[in-house]
Amino acid sequence: MKSARILAIGAHADDVEIGMGGSISKWTDEGATVIICDLTEAELSSNGTVQQRKKEAKKAAAILGVKERISLSIPDRGLYLQESFIKEVTAVIRTYQPQIVFAPYHLDRHPDHGNCSRLVEEAFFNAGIRHYQTEGALDAFKPERLFYYMINGFHQPDFVIDITAYMEKKIAGLHAYESQFTIGEHGVTTPLTDGYIEAVSARERLFGKEVGVRYAEGFKTKKPLLLRNLIGEST
Fold first, then answer.
1. Beta-sheet strands, E only, within 81-150
2. Which Pfam families does the entry link to (predicted)?
């Protein structure tokens, strides 16, 4: 993964950390460049404020070794297949030119996560179309792969990443979102405040057991993974 450029896209700050925080920490530790893009400012969240969330997102990114994090400020709960939104995401892909793009897996209890997935799929495809215009007249660019991480769901993964050595970093990144995973003085109970981090840890433990390691994160893909040889690494 050395020298790779990875773009991880989420609907809200904390989505990426929930689904693939351990993998991000592993890859940045190995020398990869990881950019996180939050499509919204999560302004409709039950707890916390936009400014709090931004500070927490910055802290979480630093913990995981992410040097750059951006927000597109698309309206929370407004992630629809709107052409202007597709163009915004396409412009991000063309600007950062990642080898690999990650998006939420579409089967999730939160509609924004599924809508985010579909927006990214459209942008991923359009980014490589030479005559598709985005603001700034950016050149066409086609990333190599699009993979999907899980947020609230538990699905049979197509592949997993061993994060045993990075599970503590993942948990630390989640704890950076104090406004979301704990109930503050004026906070309310949500699925995130009811043992959510423990549930995520349990999921990664189960994924790990499937492949004989302690912790792993699971990912989905629509295309088969190519193995160079029977015991080689996937590309």
1. 100-104, 145-149
2. PIG-L
DSSP H or E run through 162: strand 159-162
d(CA 64, CA 34): 9
Q: Whole-number mean pLDDT of the chain?
A: 94
Convert the pLDDT of each residue in 109-168 to its tens digit: 999 999 999 999 999 999 999 999 998 878 999 999 999 999 999 999 999 999 999 999
CA 26 from chain centre, in angstroms, equals: 14
* Whole-number Cα distances in Å, 177 to 14, 17, 18: 7, 10, 11
- Residue 51 exposed, middle or buried by CB count within 10 Å (0-12, 13-18, 19+): exposed
Q: Return d(Cα 149, Cα 22) in angstroms, integer.
A: 12
Q: Smallest Cα–Cα separation from 120: which of 138, 98, 152? A: 98
Q: How many angstroms separate the CA atoms of 137 and 61, rounded?
A: 29
**Domain architecture of the chain: domains with CATH:** 5-220 (3.40.50.10320)
What is the C-alpha separation between 19 and 108, in angstroms, rounded? 12
- Comparing C-alpha atoms, which of 139, 7, 129, 122 is closest to residue 69? 7
